[in-house]
């Protein structure tokens, strides 16, 4: 064996590199990796051989082996870019981004960085990275398509047309660009135009893929995202039945990729709502791993964007709540807050679970902690906490939650709600401070359209202060209103409030009131000396006279109608008067006599003994009646009991319905 090994020819490194080059040219990447190993065996420090091996393994989709080769390399060579790419392929996005730190910002690094940021959902940073790429002037349609997609995902759909003009591309350049243009129209709520653009994208895609000799199933798989988006647009347009049929067809045919099927399933459940929670849960359970319901199946964790995964998990949690599966809902809510710590929906859903479990304090605490950590996203969270606290009777916490929302803090409806909540917890000073703050804020708004709002809030503040003992502050507000507008209501308010604090001011403003007609001839001093009853005497007398005249007139107009009698009734000869008790039940009338109960012996025993027992009873009754009758009258008459007995022998006595009910009871 040693001799054979010694006799084996030694292949030079140059020949090995030639063989390596031939395998790469023939796309035989596994063979190329093996030859690269032979080169490294012959020349352990060869950097080119190591780089060829890593690239060949990446091209062969052997990502794990490529990453192992990078980490186990003894050669001092910078493989940070390839390491980042391998981590990106393994969906270790944060590690991949860290591996790119310190790399030269060339076009390859910037493209990989943009892809990683896009998958992480950091769209603003992704757009910045793509903007840096533009200076390299790379003429790649795929790259331009990715730039447009990143701009739409960043919420800058209005800039799409400008970027496409700068990149010198049109929607008709590819079906991907037409699809992205349709997405930008959806973001701008131009749903009808988006529908037409999606139909155009589907037509362009079918033509392009047929030219490339794709099969029908493959074409349908490639264009599945367009079909799902088209169904979504029709859903937004109100064509719910068409969208329902489209979603169902995509799911049942299973010709789309797993991510499109997942999106279609989620949209279908959202469209149906909570009509059939069990069916919706069964469909969503197919997207979740059986052993761990906090992870998606079929590699969806790597294929869906974070907001898509969040939507699927959120819908599943809502269905669990509607199905009253609180334990599973609580477990999923806790996991969501960890998976999406900066998102609003998990915090709201977790609070909803606590409310369903009647743990109000925990729900309020959860929402408050999220609002403290993310003040810029706190508006819906604080609104939810205000609602929960108000329903639970925690009026102070509810008012504080509303007061922490700057956007609506001074709006009239919010001010009215906060004042009402403060008043319920007897915090009059707090309510007054809210009104003062609102008045000051609207004064500084300095908008012509806000004049009416300022007047309304000032009027409400003055009325509130007047009702709660702050007369001087109320008088100042009314006086300011009167000076700015000269309204009669403000003048009346000034007189009312100043009359309690400053009589001279009240009299001065009272002179500006218009005199009421009919009051010039009234002596005020004599009127004050009269009692309250005589105060309205003249008016009452006049009113009484008017009412008497009206009654007399109505009395004259009233005609006397002839009485109507029953048919056949003669009023001249009415006959005996009707029974006054005719409307009472018979048992309650004075003439009612109850029937006697049948006291005869009831027949008991077997069916065959009935006739004999009846015959014996009859004979005994006749014998007793004969023995009891007077002498000389035996054949002429019988006793009353004998007569009843003989009658009962031929026909059983019938009991009344009332007696039957008594026996049953």
From TrEMBL:
GO molecular function, a single term: 7S RNA binding
Primary location class: cytoplasm
Keyword Endoplasmic reticulum: yes
GO biological process: one example: SRP-dependent cotranslational protein targeting to membrane
Biased composition (Polar residues): 619-628
Bias-annotated ranges (Basic residues): 553-565
Pfam families given in the database record: SRP72
Name of protein: Signal recognition particle subunit SRP72
Gene behind this protein: SRP72_6
């Amino acid at each position: 064996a040693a001799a054979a090994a010694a006799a084996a020819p030694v292949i030079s490194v140059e020949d090995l590199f030639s063989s390596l080059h031939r395998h790469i040219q023939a796309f035989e990447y596994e063979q190329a990796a093996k030859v690269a190993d032979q080169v490294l065996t012959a020349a352990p420090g060869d950097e080119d051989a190591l780089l060829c091996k890593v690239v060949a393994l990446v091209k062969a989709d052997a990502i794990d082996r490529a990453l192992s080769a990078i980490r186990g390399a003894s050669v001092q060579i910078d493989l940070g870019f390839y390491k980042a790419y391998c981590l990106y392929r393994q969906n270790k996005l944060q590690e991949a981004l860290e591996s790119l730190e310190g790399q030269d910002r060339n076009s390859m690094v910037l493209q990989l960085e943009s892809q990683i940021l896009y998958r992480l959902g950091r769209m603003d940073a992704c757009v910045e990275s793509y903007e840096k790429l533009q200076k390299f002037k790379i003429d790649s349609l795929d790259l331009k398509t990715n730039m447009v997609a990143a701009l739409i995902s960043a919420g800058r759909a209005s800039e799409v047309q400008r970027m496409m003009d700068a990149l010198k591309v049109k929607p008709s350049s590819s079906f991907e660009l037409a699809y992205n243009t349709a997405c930008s129209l959806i973001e701008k709520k131009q749903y009808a135009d988006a529908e037409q653009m999606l139909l155009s994208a589907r037509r362009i895609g079918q033509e392009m893929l047929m030219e490339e000799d794709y099969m029908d199933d493959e074409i349908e798989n490639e264009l599945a995202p367009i079909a799902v988006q088209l169904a979504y647009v029709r859903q937004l347009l109100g064509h719910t039945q068409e969208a329902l049929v489209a979603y169902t067809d995509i799911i049942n045919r299973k010709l789309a990729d797993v991510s499109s099927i997942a999106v279609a399933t989620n949209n279908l459940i959202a469209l149906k709502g909570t009509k059939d929670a069990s069916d919706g849960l069964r469909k969503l359970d197919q997207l979740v791993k059986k052993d761990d319901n906090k992870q998606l199946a079929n590699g969806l964790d790597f294929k869906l964007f974070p907001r898509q995964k969040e939507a699927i998990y959120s819908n599943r949690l809502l269905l669990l709540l509607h199905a009253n599966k609180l334990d599973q809902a609580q477990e999923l809510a806790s996991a969501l807050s960890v998976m999406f710590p900066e998102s609003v929906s998990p915090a709201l859903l977790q609070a909803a679970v606590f409310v369903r479990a009647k743990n109000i304090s925990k729900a309020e605490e959860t929402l408050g902690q999220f609002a403290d950590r993310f003040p810029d996203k706190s508006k819906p969270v604080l609104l939810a906490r205000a609602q929960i606290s108000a329903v639970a009777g925690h009026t102070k916490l509810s008012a504080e939650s509303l007061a922490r929302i700057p956007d609506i803090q001074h709006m009239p409806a919010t001010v009215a709600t906060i004042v009402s909540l403060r008043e319920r917890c007897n915090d009059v000073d707090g309510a007054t401070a809210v009104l003062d703050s609102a008045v000051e804020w609207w004064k500084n708004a300095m908008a012509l359209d806000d004049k009416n709002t300022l007047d309304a809030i000032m009027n409400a503040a003055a009325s509130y202060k007047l009702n709660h003992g702050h007369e001087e502050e109320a008088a100042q507000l009314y006086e300011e209103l009167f000076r700015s507008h000269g309204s009669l209501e403000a003048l009346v308010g000034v007189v009312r409030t100043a009359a309690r604090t400053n009589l001279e001011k009240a009299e001065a403003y009272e002179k500006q009131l218009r005199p009421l007609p009919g009051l010039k001839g009234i002596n005020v001093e004599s009127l004050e000396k009269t009692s309250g009853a005589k105060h309205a005497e003249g008016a009452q007398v006049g009113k009484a006279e008017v009412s008497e005249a009206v009654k007399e007139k109505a009395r004259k107009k009233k005609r006397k109608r002839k009485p109507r009698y029953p048919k056949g009734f003669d009023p001249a000869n009415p006959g005996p008067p009707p029974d006054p008790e005719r409307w009472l039940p018979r048992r309650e009338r004075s003439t009612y006599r109850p029937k006697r109960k049948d006291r005869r012996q009831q027949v008991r025993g077997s069916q065959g003994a009935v006739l004999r027992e009846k015959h014996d009873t009859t004979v005994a009754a006749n014998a007793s009646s004969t023995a009891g009758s007077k002498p000389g009258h035996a054949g002429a008459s019988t006793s009353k009991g004998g007569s009843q007995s003989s009658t009962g022998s031929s026909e059983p006595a019938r009991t009344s319905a009332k007696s039957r009910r008594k026996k049953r009871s």
